[in-house]
Amino acid sequence: MFGGSRSEVEVVEAAPGKKTLCVIGAGASGLTVMKEVTALGHTVQCFDENVRIGGVYTKSYDRTMLTTSSLLTAYSDYSDGREDSPKFWSDEEYLNYLDGFATEFGLYEHIEFRSTVKSVTKCPTTGKWLVKVALGGCYVWPHRSTFLLGRGVPESAREEAATKGAATLDDFYGKAATQGFEKIKGSYVYDYYDHVTGEKRRMDPSERATAKTLAFDAVAVCTGTNTWASLPEFEGQDEYVASGGEIVHSENYKKPEVFKDKRILIVGAGESGSDICNEIAEEAAKVAIAVRGKHGHIIPRKQSDGRVTDLNTNRCRYSNPYVLGDWVGYVTQLAKKTVAKYGGGRAKDASERAVLQKIGELNMSQGTSAFSKFGCKNEGFVTAMVTKGAELHRDTFVLKGGKKAVFADGSEFVADAVVACTGYKNSFPMFEADDVKHDQVSDGVRVADLNKRYGQNPRKLYKQIFCPLFQTGELAFFGFARPAFGAIPPTAEMQSRFFALVFDGVVTLPSREVMETTAAKDQANWEYRFGYDAKRVKGLVDFQLYCDDLAEQFGALPPLRRLFFTKPKIWWKIMFGPFTMHQYRLVGPYANPELAARVYSKQPVGDLLESSITATFLIMAKTLSLLGFKQFTPNNF
Ligand SMILES: Cc1cc2nc3c(=O)[nH]c(=O)nc-3n(C[C@H](O)[C@H](O)[C@H](O)COP(=O)(O)OP(=O)(O)OC[C@H]3O[C@@H](n4cnc5c(N)ncnc54)[C@H](O)[C@@H]3O)c2cc1C
Ligand SMILES: NC(=O)c1ccc[n+]([C@@H]2O[C@H](COP(=O)([O-])OP(=O)(O)OC[C@H]3O[C@@H](n4cnc5c(N)ncnc54)[C@H](OP(=O)(O)O)[C@@H]3O)[C@@H](O)[C@H]2O)c1
Predict the structure, then answer these.
(1) Which molecular function GO terms apply here (predicted)?
(2) Ligand 1 centroid, distance to 140 Cα (angstroms)
(3) Ligand 2 close to Cβ of residue 458 (< 6 A)
(4) pLDDT tens digits for range 357-411
């Protein structure tokens, strides 16, 4: 119990010589933080406002299929045993993977669900972080996954929950379609089943929560970079809505049937826009997709030989220096487009060939490559264009009465609804609550300032993880670096491994000044590399460069030269197979070379065409750099 005006504080106890950590959020990032830190014997408590683990994947649209394959998405220390046949998990399958991970490492016992962290302050006397949590009473709208029960629950209970869940969802959608999504979201009451125990519970947004405050040594913020929708105010939207048009953000989109026989305008062509465009095009009377600048660089989920495309997200490709990146992309794209045109590549039919060809055309016409543009790792909107007559407008628009969207080139599209797939923004309300406004943290900086200064822009954090004010690493953020091509969960795993070693005192962070100047330098590099995209998507990074950078901090970079001579098969898989995190378990702290070797023995490599092109560029770059042209120096090769 602390004195002064504070309410009762429960100090969380640690084992002798160990520390306590509060993890906010039990999504893919929070889980890996918990696993890494509990493995070192520290005490961890996690709070999540949801009813189960898995974050975004518990509430995304019904037919969500990941865009990163199971190989690329998996953590390095928990295998689904299917490395030889990677696939794209559905949200449900990925939730099962996470459930297996949480069960294997005993993480459930550290998590309190339906617990919203309301504020995070720092006690000036003890230096502890005070976390105020509201228990119960919070609201998550129903989704299929809410009714999925954990593996410990009997089959009969699972069946009952599934039936009950389906009925609840139908009821919810029926009401949402007629009463408006936003309205129903805040008032809908439903029964659900506790994911772990199978007990029946009630979710009622009007139920009052109880509050408690706990004191920890450190806080890990894992609240998700796709938690807060970014919904722009469209010019003319009032007139549009007054004439009967509806505007929905993609976070509220669940299934296409709601738009049956309607005319729909999709805004934005990232992965949400692309997937959703294709789904809605199946039901709607007509669909158009609007891109104000360039769409994400499109890579289909699967190659024409039916294998997952991210087998080519490999070290050979991304070791190429940035100056050659667009050329690598251009030549690969040209080769693939040509193969698609002349019927090679085993595309299964003419429409698949047409889609692949169109992808080549669209990417080449906007001059992007995977080196300089955020990824749209699904072909959805292209399929919708080629096979379902969806229109692409590369133009800005204004909304008007008569449910019209008028584009800058004068063309018009009448739309019953606008589905804004305009992405997300970072937000940390727990650093803005009233009780944190007057807190003194360090050198005149208040907690409330932390959010403005560091939180909202992860590039201000050291390595996009650590708040530079604390050399102890006691305030850290996970999951806020988004690889342009690559997956967020394994990136968060690398962040967690680095953090755990800092938290444990094995690795020391540099001084505040060095952390701040390094963050500024890194920011300038990412902004140079990704230009405009790096400013809108503030966490955007290159998967390989970023993970290598983290690995270097704690000594886990794969020893490529040594592997070439001693374990050439593993070297080959690392260079030409998918960029998985097993390469960082070969050496260094908490290496697991046996598991890594087992996985590499099964893991396939990318296709011959792309591998040959990227290898040719890489050898050329290496030769030029050896001849003294330093701008061609490959990355870690
Ligand atoms: C439709 C969709 C599909 C995606 N597919 C892919 C993919 O294929 N590959 C990929 O790499 N990425 C994908 N992503 C990105 C995805 O966001 C990340 O992979 C993943 O969710 C990151 O996990 P996280 O734990 O950082 O965040 P989240 O999954 O968002 O989890 C954050 C958790 O924090 C909790 N929380 C937030 N605030 C509080 C609070 N105040 N108190 C308590 N709890 C709180 C939330 O309830 C949530 O459980 C996808 C995103 C979307 C929207
Ligand atoms: N199936 C999947 O695996 C899947 C599905 C969905 C999402 N995701 C993941 O979730 C994250 C978010 O993806 P996302 O597609 O929702 O967002 P996103 O990738 O950030 O893309 C947002 C899109 O909206 C456009 N946009 C933003 N603001 C706009 C405005 N004011 N007016 C017009 N257009 C605007 C952007 O255009 P500009 O480029 O011009 O700014 C961009 O095309 C990503 O990490 C993605 O990988 C994965």
Answers:
(1) flavin adenine dinucleotide binding; N,N-dimethylaniline monooxygenase activity; NADP binding
(2) 14
(3) no
(4) 899 899 989 988 889 899 999 999 999 999 999 999 999 999 999 999 999 999 9
- CB atoms near residue 346 (< 10 Å): 11
- What whole-number distance in Å separates Cα of residue 304 and Cα of residue 340? 8
Ligand located closest to 266 CA: 2
* Tokens representing residue 349 in the block: 């039919």
Q: Which domains does the chain have, with CATH numbers?
A: 7-136+209-226+426-554 (3.50.50.60), 153-206 (no CATH), 228-309+321-423 (3.50.50.60)
The answer to which of 44-53, 145-154, 522-531, 626-635 has the lowest mean pLDDT is: 145-154
CB 28 near ligand 1, within 6 Å: yes
CA 112 vs CA 48, 50, 104, 107, 233: distances in Å: 6, 9, 18, 11, 36
E-strand stretches of 273-341: 286-290, 297-298
pTM: 0.95
Residue 531 beta carbon below 6 angstroms from any ligand 2 atom: no
Q: How far is the CA of 59 from the centre of ligand 1 (A)?
A: 9
Residue length of the chain = 637
Residue 233: which residues within 8 A CB-CB, separation 6 or more?
none
Q: What is the pLDDT of residues 479-489, one digit of tens each?
A: 999 999 999 99
Q: Is the CB of 29 under 6 A from ligand 1?
A: yes
- 3-state SS track over 501-553: HHHCCCCCCCCHHHHHHHHHHHHHHHHHHHCHHHHHCCCEECHHHHHHHHHHH
- Is residue 68 lining ligand 1, measured as CB closer than 6 Å? yes
CB proximity list for 179: less than 8 A, separation 6 or greater:
none
Ligand 2 and 534: CB distance under 6 A: no
pLDDT digit string, tens, across residues 91-110: 999 999 999 999 999 999 99
Q: How confident is the model at residue 1 (pLDDT cuts 50, 70, 90)?
A: very low
| 373-387 burial: b if 16+ Cβ within 10 Å, else e | bbbbbbbbbbbbbbe
User: In angstroms, what is the span from residue 52 Cα to ligand 1's centroid?
Assistant: 12
- Quote the pLDDT of residue 624: 96
Name the residue at shortest CA distance from atom 4 of ligand 1: 66
Nearest residue to 46 via CA among 216, 192, 207: 216
490 lines ligand 1 (CB under 6 A): no
Condensed to tens digits (0 to 9), the pLDDT of residues 315-358 reads 999 999 999 998 999 999 888 878 877 765 566 678 888 898 89
Q: Which ligand approaches the C-alpha of residue 141 most closely?
A: 1
**Atom 34 in ligand 2: which residue has the minimum CA distance?**
268
Q: Relative to the CA of 479, which ligand 1 atom is closest?
A: 26
Gap from CA of 423 to ligand 2 centroid (Å)? 4
List the structure tokens of 209. Answer: 């929560």
Question: For ligand 2, is residue 292 a contact (CB within 6 Å)?
Answer: yes
